[in-house]
Amino acid sequence: MKRTLLLACLSVLLVASIITRPDEAFQASLQGLTVWWNIVFPGLLPFLTLLELMLAFGVVHALGTLLHPIMQKLFRLPGEAGIALALGWTGGFPCGAEAAAALRKRDALTVKQGNRLLALSHMPNPLFMLLVVGTGFLHRPELGAAITIVVWLAALLPVLVVARMTKLEAAPAEARSSASLFRKAARAMREARERDGRSFGKLLGDAVTVAVYKLMAIGGFMIFCAVLVKLLEPLMPGSIPAFVLPGLVESHIGAYAASAAAFTGGLPWKAAAIAAVLSWGGLSALLQAGAAISGTGLTLRSLAAARLLHSATAFVLMLTCWKPITVMMSGLSPAAATFAWRYEETGPGPSGVIRASDLHSLWPYAPLLLLVFICTMTLLVCVSAATAKLKLR
């Protein structure tokens, strides 16, 4: 009851704040809408639609069989987890959470496995880090690559450590049999397709409808959080850096604010702050994941703890490995410039206010993201098949 009353009071205060400051609320809404349309919608629509199609056609079941050896060995997770991992790492928030929730609803994961997979697959969009942050915000493509590598490494290290402390479950008799891995995958795919039974037209319509519905909900979360940041700004003490509040609430706006902030430690600290903000994901990403995992038994509490650990690890890792990473990434500048759009060298706008020109659309890069996903899945399948052959020998 107390929680309900508290939430009701906060809702009334939020509405009152919007009424008393309509201009600021409207501009913040436009800011959230700009981020959603230019970055999130094109980044997620292909993957959310593809996930629905893969589930219905049995591709998830087939790939789960193919990926079981490597996922079990590395992460102590079933093979289907590899699909959530690839979708989350290429599609961004909350694509990984959607995939993990779908697997949990099919009972392909236990609650513990689902929470570990959720922590590993709930990741920021790589093109946002590479192109928007590196090229658009910082005007340094190699820094975007460095931030991406650090965010990925910071996600992998804790999960690998936890996996090593998790007891390896015995493989089912079917997985230990000498039958061809690809033959078992084909059988799993056929059985799943027969269970679904929808025609291609019906399936495609349902997939697009579900994907757009989810994207609308995600857009609502982002606009709400953008307005919340704007309304809370006057309450923040002056001693707290300006990027902290947007970084805690919405990672895209937080990364922009961090790139506009001045750091006494210079560029390494700026890059570390951006990596920490992106790894945390913000309240917006947590709410998006919460909507995805509703009714699955997975908890936001464990995800929030994992995101905090991920953020702290990314911050420390960036500062610790700054010199070797930047030296390694400096060679990528000419190649990265090939994909970079042209910006005026004015830097981010004042007070961390996002400009539409700084969030160049990712629509042209949607096919590239799909290609990266396909290549990632192909690589994982090849490595997994090689691992299975070694085990049989």
UniProtKB/TrEMBL annotation:
It comes from the Bacteria. Keywords: Membrane, Transmembrane, Transmembrane helix. The chain crosses the membrane at residues 44-67, 117-137, 143-163, 203-229, 271-293, 305-325, 365-388. Pfam families: Gate. InterPro entries: Gate_dom. Residues 40-123 form the Nucleoside transporter/FeoB GTPase Gate domain. The keyword Transmembrane helix applies. This is Nucleoside recognition protein. It comes from Paenibacillus rhizovicinus.
